Prior knowledge:
globular; 5-stranded mixed beta barrel; Inorganic Pyrophosphatase; single chain; alpha+beta
Amino acid sequence: MSKSTPPDETIPLTDHHRVPNMVGGIFQAHPWHGVPIGEDFPEKVNCYIELVPTDTVKYELDKDSGHLKIDRPQLFSNTCPMPYGLVPQTLCDQRVAERCMEKTGRTDIVGDGDPIDICVISERPIPHGNLLLTARVIGGLRMIDNGEADDKLIAVMKQDPGFVNWKDIYDMPDAFIDRLRHYFITYKQRPGYTSPCEIAEVYDVREAQHMLRLSYEDYKDVYGLQHDELSHAQANRRKFRQGV
């Protein structure tokens, strides 16, 4: 006769911690809602890369399913100058729009309802999107697209040896900034029509971090405190692994 577990005996702590790992192996986290913004936020953030410079179609995250989808072919000669994607658990909504109006003097701006976008500089080629990386923000472009705040943050990939000394957007050569400005001003423009996009401002690292905070607060207003809950769970798992 086999031995059975006494009714009052609790399951060992190690068994409790197998469940998140098993679930994580079955279900992929949603890149927008299921991935934390990053432990070193707002200086460094996690980034979900949707698009790289060799892509001839524009990929973007399908917000309902969490899968990467084709949005449209890249128009004309436009190609994205660097890996481009979004910062998880951010949202361009009321606070982001209010900051845009404060800085531009406009009164007709709304948030675009998407995660805040980010361009990541690296000397190492990244061959495809649909991946996560950590990057250090250095600045951003305050873009307005058809009356919507659609900021584009600029960052350097974490531990990238080629750009480790770039601490602020003004450490970049003007040609880098001009190339980014040109791409985003023209990436929706059709021949014979005015671009719906404008770059109202180029801003520094402090403003970029401020925009991250605002977009994170906008996210929490709409979607709740998932990041705080996830961070708490991650901290508990680290304590368990360390035997605290």
